[in-house]
Amino acid sequence: MPVRLSGFLHSALGNRTSLQLLRPALAPAATASHQLEGTGLPRGERRRLSAQMNKNSSNIMALAPNTSNKRETVCIFGTGDFGRALGQKMIQSGYPVVFGSRSPQTSNLIPKEAEVLSHTEAAQKAAIIIIAIQRQHYDFLTPLAEILRGKVLVDVSNNLKINQYPESNAEYLAQLVPGAKVVKAFNTVSAWALQSGTLDASRQVFVCGDDMEAKQMVMDIVRALGLTPLDQGSLLAAQEIENYPLQLFPMWKFPIFLSLGLTAFFFFYCLIRDVIYSYVYENKDYSFFIAISIPNRICPVVALILLALVYLPGVLAAIIQLYRGTKYSRFPDWLDKWMLCRKQLGLVALAFAFLHVFYTLIIPIRYYVRWRTEDGIISKVSFVPCYVFSSSSFTSTTQHVELHKYM
Ligand SMILES: NC(=O)C1=CN([C@@H]2O[C@H](COP(=O)(O)OP(=O)(O)OC[C@H]3O[C@@H](n4cnc5c(N)ncnc54)[C@H](OP(=O)(O)O)[C@@H]3O)[C@@H](O)[C@H]2O)C=CC1
Ligand SMILES: [Cu+2]
């Protein structure tokens, strides 16, 4: 990049200034116009060039981590699923990889470009060591503490339960190897996704650590692998990062509980109105409504309420923005959370609507409905008022009307 920039300046300004200008182009952007001052160029030309130089130098900054050709060797401890997948991906990205294993001779399935050594030998070859081993085996690192002094240790581990241990795995690692710079990263990426390349939804890699330089080195690797590093701050954030993969459906809690609550409410409402009321006042047993008629009444009601709740926060947000006169202020917390789970609310609504369709399809094959339909036809054909004709099965027309409601 500097060479190309120098070429550009060379042609623009001639030999006299090209070398002089090479340096400022790589310095912070603001100094570019300052450095052009002594060149004796007209003011307009100076401004144009300085803008061009600023653009070029910021491009250099943005591309820096990915354009360096020389990649440093990376060491991976553990030749399990994750270690192998990550190693493979790193080799593809141009990193020399050396594995540290308990049994270097017998390890198979390892990418053939990689070297497999003992932990001690492997650690000596690299400044960055990725610990692709479960936390419960970390104590094998204690005897290696001297060799690991000053190295960057990347903790990728996950737990089986939220807050399984009092301290995060990364902090535990930092305690075991006090001389090393521990960085937490990669734990939200799965071995399978790394291998199959289906990382579309999970390109984000959360990175945290106390040593800025170490963190930067790890983030450069993350970028080189085509992933997006997200700096989460100091190693204290590791606990939270380790909990991410264990949070199943984080945005689903509210929609699920809300729909369950609504379902329970409407179920008891229908139960009291249609079954208990008739039983108490008319001594009729309609308990069979519980199986299909009542659910089929609940489903569309809940679906429509949820659908309304999908659209409502957008309207509320618009009102708040109009009221405040700006769209650049933060929404209240409750509205923010509500807006974030609209997709999930909509999907639950869709599920209830499907259930309604399903129940509606079942209804015509029920014996009760067939009997009622036939009964209705007979009463029409006979031209006799139905309460007279079917006096054996119906005591009054009111009951007949009642039943129509439950179809
Ligand atoms: N699998 C995945 O998708 C993901 C895994 N992770 C994390 O990566 C880490 C490794 O996971 P994974 O590869 O699936 O696990 P594996 O069980 O497949 O591999 C673990 C490796 O650790 C090494 N090991 C096992 N026991 C010991 C021991 N007592 N002392 C030293 N080394 C030991 C072994 O390597 P060797 O025989 O070469 O010594 C083994 O291959 C875990 O902490 C996990 O939480 C994180 C994100 C995703
Ligand atoms: Cu309907």
From TrEMBL:
Belongs to the STEAP family. Its cofactor is FAD. Its main location: membrane. InterPro entries: NAD(P)-bd_dom_sf, P5C_Rdtase_cat_N, STEAP_metalloreductase. One of its GO terms (biological process) is iron ion transport. Keywords: Endosome, FAD, Flavoprotein, Ion transport, Iron, Iron transport, Membrane, Metal-binding, Oxidoreductase, Transmembrane, Transmembrane helix, Transport. It catalyses: 2 Fe(2+) + NADP(+) + H(+) = 2 Fe(3+) + NADPH; 2 Cu(+) + NADP(+) + H(+) = 2 Cu(2+) + NADPH. It comes from the Eukaryota. PANTHER family: DUDULIN-RELATED, METALLOREDUCTASE STEAP4. It is a multi-pass membrane protein. The gene is STEAP4. One of its GO terms (cellular component) is endosome membrane. The chain crosses the membrane at residues 256-281, 301-323, 344-365. This is STEAP4 metalloreductase. Pfam families: F420_oxidored. It comes from Anas platyrhynchos platyrhynchos (Northern mallard). One of its GO terms (molecular function) is ferric-chelate reductase (NADPH) activity. It is found in: Endomembrane system; Endosome membrane. Residues 73-159 form the Pyrroline-5-carboxylate reductase catalytic N-terminal domain.
